[in-house]
Each structure stands twice: as C-alpha cells, then as structure tokens.
Amino acid sequence: MNPTSESSLTSEKELSNKPSHIVGIGASAGGLEALVHFFSVMPLNSGYAFVVVQHLSPDFKSVMDELLSRHTDMPIHLVEDRVEIEKNSVYLIPPKKEMVLLDGRLLLTDKDPTKSLSLPIDVFFRSLAQDMGDKAIAVVLSGTGSDGSRGIVDVHDAGGMVIAQSDETAKFNGMPRSATDTGMVDYVLGPEEIPQAVLK
Q1: Which of 17, 47, 92, 115 measures 20 to 30 Å from 23, CA to CA?
Q2: Facing residues of 161 across strands?
Q3: pTM here?
Q4: CA 39 to CA 29: how far, in whole Å?
C-alpha cells in the first residue's frame, strides 16, 4: 500500500469516528444523580459525543467515571490535553482544569488559582458554539450559582440547542434557573427526558 492510500484510509477512519453533534453538559451540586438518569436513557449509538463539565473540588478524587460506567456502555474518558473527540463516547473534565474545544479536540489549561470565581461551564460552552455551530448542544443540569448561563447564549446564537433541567427534578436549581432566565433555553426537562430532545 502506498503512503497516499494509507493516509486516505486514516482520514476516512477519522471521519467515520467524528461525532455529528457534540453535547456539552454542565453540572455542579446534585448533578451526578441527573447525569446517571441522562446516560441510563441515552442510546449507545447516537453518533453524538458527550462532554461533561462538572465543578470539582481540587482535592476531590472524582468517582464519576466509575459511577457512570454502571449506567452506560459508552466508553468514558477522563480528558487528556488535545484528545480528539470521537462519537458515542463520554469525556469528563479533570479537577483543577478548564477546557475548551478547538477543531474537534479538547484542550486543557490550569485553573487560575488567583481567580475567586471560576466558570468552566461558560468557558466550554462558548468554545463549543464556536467549534460546532448549529451542531452544538448545551445542557445545564443541577447546580448552585449561574455557571453556564453566559455560554448558552453563544450556543443559542450559533444555532445550537439549549436544554435546562427542570426545577422540580433539580436538587439545586440555581444553574438551570439562571439558564432559563436568559430566554435562550429551547427545552426545560427532567434528566431522563433530555436524551429524546437531544436526538430530535
């Protein structure tokens, strides 16, 4: 096989693994339960990729990958810098990091310890909107504060879809309510109803 046909095979493989849409999921306090409900219902072969941005304490060893793996057979990855996103896969932000999407890859940077307020969900949603346009989907789950409510504006303006968890199903409704208050949310749903809307 000559090098040209080898490289064309590689690019074909890359294209076949490329997600049709990327779903960014922002979660904080109470979000793990919502994530479990979401992934329990999400089909394994949607052709989408899922990037979970959760507020994590710097000293907290997240067991989210172990917990989620009990509820989905999709591969779950703790993100490493510059990893290429593949369809039918779940990507989790590591502690002490901020993350953006650029050209189908996830780039990690250290959180600035001098900043009292960190908004990793907004940071990711903005990059998701820039990279995916109308193929971007932003989901805001349970959490305190308002992280995500600025980033969803970018997703909405890019023609993407925005979904917030409903008040009655969220353990902490600060984040989803802040998102809904922007007027940019397409659907307000319980976590087990969100997959159906995502796949519309």
Answers
A1: 115
A2: 137
A3: 0.92
A4: 18
Extract the tokens encoding 13: 């493989």
Separation CA 121–CA 99 (nearest Å): 9
Sorted by where each begins, the domain ranges of the chain are 23-198
pLDDT of residue 51: 99
Whose CA is closest to 152, among 23, 19, 28?
23
Question: What confidence tens digit (pLDDT) does each residue in 122-154 have?
Answer: 999 999 999 999 999 999 999 999 999 999 999
User: 49-54 and 22-27: which strand pairing?
Assistant: parallel
Joined together, the tokens standing for residue 182 give 């922007």
Tell me the backbone φ, ψ of residue 123, rounded to 5 degrees: -60, -45
Token pair of 119 as six digits: 């908004």
CATH class in words for 23-198: alpha beta
